[in-house]
């Protein structure tokens, strides 16, 4: 179902970031009426609050736990564990939460490993964003309007050969970074492992 959608993901969101996400998606749908936003809150116990917020805004949504056979609403709430990482491959862009508010941000590397374009706010104390910025994978946004603007730019790029190549190159660069990191950790552990043996 997701392979045929103009899809973006709002990952690891906190209150009140969902308000900005909803506002941005409503703006995006003016240009892309079929666009789908997956909202994955950082804490699953916040799903009922997001449902209330969507109802207040008179926005239709579907829940992952209801196992819909068809995606018909503009919002899809991911109220499940351990599925977010498997959805990144379908996303045109990913907004990573905890960054529009002073939470310090969450994991940018999961969407980066899929070559996703990553949007985030100014608060990145908990992340290693410099590598991803150098790979042209990240873009800072200030608010809902700015988020909508950058989402539309990403959607306008489409999914042509050049974009697929960029995505593949980004994935390879992230994998090389992780291989180097693993090698460094193993090398650092060698003296201690030698003592154990």
């Amino acid at each position: 179902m997701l392979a045929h959608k103009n899809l973006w993901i709002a990952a690891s969101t906190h209150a009140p970031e969902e308000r900005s996400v909803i506002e941005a998606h409503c703006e995006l749908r003016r240009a892309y009426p079929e666009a789908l936003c997956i909202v994955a809150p950082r804490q699953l116990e916040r799903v009922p609050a997001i449902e209330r917020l969507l109802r207040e805004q008179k926005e239709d949504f579907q829940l992952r736990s209801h196992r819909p056979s068809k995606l018909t609403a503009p919002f899809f709430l991911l109220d499940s564990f351990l599925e977010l990482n498997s959805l990144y491959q379908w996303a045109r862009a990913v907004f990573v939460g905890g960054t529009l508010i002073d939470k310090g941000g969450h994991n940018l590397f999961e969407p980066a490993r899929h070559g996703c374009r990553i949007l985030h706010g100014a608060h990145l104390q908990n992340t290693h964003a410099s590598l991803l910025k150098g790979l042209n994978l990240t873009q800072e946004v200030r608010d809902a309007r700015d988020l909508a603007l950058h989402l539309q730019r990403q959607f306008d790029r489409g999914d042509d050969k050049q974009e697929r190549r960029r995505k593949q190159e980004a994935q390879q660069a992230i994998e090389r970074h992780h291989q180097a990191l693993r090698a460094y950790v193993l090398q650092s552990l060698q003296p201690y492992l030698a003592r154990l043996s």
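Helices lie at 17-31, 47-56, 84-87, 109-113, 129-134, 144-157, 161-196. The two ends are 52 Å apart (CA to CA).
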